[in-house]
Structure formats: structure tokens, C-alpha cells
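Tutorial, part two.
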Amino acid sequence: MSKAPVGIGVVGLGLMGRAFAQICTETAETRLVGVADISERSARAAADQFGVPSYPAADDLVARADVQAIIVATPEDAHVEPCLLALDRGKGVLVEKPIADSAAHGQTIADAAARSGAVLLVGHVLRFHPHFVLAKQAIDEGRVGRVRQLQTRRLASVRAQERLRGRCSLPIFLGVHDYDVVRWFAESEPARIYGESQRGVLRDLGYDVEDVSWALITFENGVLAACESGWVLPGGHPSGQDGRIAVQGTEGRLDVELMHQGIMLSGPDRSSSLDTLFLPRVRGELRSIFVDELRHFARCLSGEATPLVTARDAIVAVQMAEAVIESARTHQPVGMTPLR
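Running the prediction step on this input gives:
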């Protein structure tokens, strides 16, 4: 017999919250029960779209008996309250990355999960991305020998600030993706981080955040990683992103290219990549790395799986971001003492 779908509430109805609400309505393992957002307009729009009740705050949504878990997709500085509301009631939480706007706030969330025993999954979605999963599988199979160097690039368009409005630093928002990946691939803890950043383009547009950020990470096992992050690609860039990861081992090399999604549509004015990862529909069915992430969350809630991304993983990624920011401020390397 098939299991009853898990009742899910979504808190925060920006880009990711709306995406998760859509996925919840179309995934057999889940059922969207309600939505919450401090913006009455956003909450009502989502409620009308998905045919569920809306709430101005998370507490009334979390209190519903048919809400078994919530997805927290608020801005990163508003993660703690809804996470604690759910975890303290023993309800599961899928919280978007980063776990919080600081490692200390992330630890507050982790402590609540530990007290209640409720499921906590942090949305470092690259752990579900087939390119990264296959790369890690090849590493684990010894196909590159021992990993020695890692290099990542994650660049986004200047148009990202039309949505973010300068609310969050580059290492905290984008960098944590790759800090988590290089730690995952290196299979070691960061020992020392040196960071540099550059500002100017976005500051001139009214957003006092970094244009680009570089991090040189030395791991305890000697692996070196260089991570480039940025969000000043021109608005006319064909894919709106430029990403890669290179893994150099003692016996081989892996190169993952992420700038294009494998399919490009060109018209009279510009070219653009068609979506193959975020929310593509194939013969009318949603297929996405976020669908896979949500299904994994449902399996964790039913006891069939354990979270692929732990609170510790997520907190260490934020610790690394904080070290990059501090190093860029002082122009000195920062020694790491990761959460154990």
C-alpha cells in the first residue's frame, strides 16, 4: 500500500518558496497544506494559486495538526524563528541554504533539532545535483586517485540584486554552495582560509555587497581548494551564470562544466539556456534537483533515510563563509576550528 503524503507547510514565498510549494502539490510523497509569508500580497497570491490557506506568520501554520513538516524559504536572517517553532513541536524542517545568516544562529537551529529528535535537512541542493553526485561517486571509486586540488567557479548575473537587494554577503549566499562541495569532495575539514574580495559595480548600483570573492582553502589532509564567487555577469549573458568545478587527483582529473545546461535557444535578440535543473517539465511532469531533494526529505520524515546534508555540514559551510569574509577584511589568513 502507498503511504499517505506528508503534510507540508511552506514559510517564505519568494522564488524558492513558490517553487517548493509547486513541487509539494505535484509530488506524490507530499501534500501542500498551507503557506505563510509576512507579505500579505505574496501569501494571498500563493494561496490562490495552490488552493490552500495562507497565514501572515509561521506560528499559526506550524500549529496546524495536519502540518507534519515545514519548508523554510525565508531570507537567511529569518530562518531561526520558523525552524524553532517547528522543531520544538517535533515537526520536521527543510531549511534552504544557508542554514542561517551566521554559524551561531545555525547552531541554535541544530540544538533545537537535537533536543526534539525531529528531522532537519538543510537545502544544499548540489548534494542532489547529478553532476556533483556522479563526480563524488567517481572520487569514491578511486578514479582520480587521491584528491589534491579543487577549483570552483560560481558566477551569477548582476540582475540577481533585483531580487536580493543587497541583503546578504556573497560568501554567505553563493559561496556556501561551493565551500560545502569542496569539503565534501576533500573528505576533510578546513584548516586555514585566505579570502579576498572586490567591490564597486554593485555598490555603484546601491548595493553594498561584494562583486566577486575568492577563497583559498587549505584542508587538514593537505587538499587545496580555490573558490571563485561573483554576481556581476552582465544582464545580457546568455545563460545568466558561469560555473564549474575541477578536481585534480594523483591519478586523474574531473571537470564539471555548469555554464550551460546543455540546450540553448537563440532568437533575433539574444540566446538563452533552457531550464533543465530548476523546474523543467518533461512531458508535463516536474523533474528537478529540488524534486529529488523534497522526495529525500519525505523519506527522512518516514524513517526510510537519514539527511544527506546534516546540520553540522551546513554550519561548517557558514563558518567557512565567515572566515572568507573576515580574511578579506583583514587581508590575513584565518585559522579554522570547525564544529566537531
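The chain has eleven helices and 17 strands. In part three we will examine how such features are distributed along the chain.
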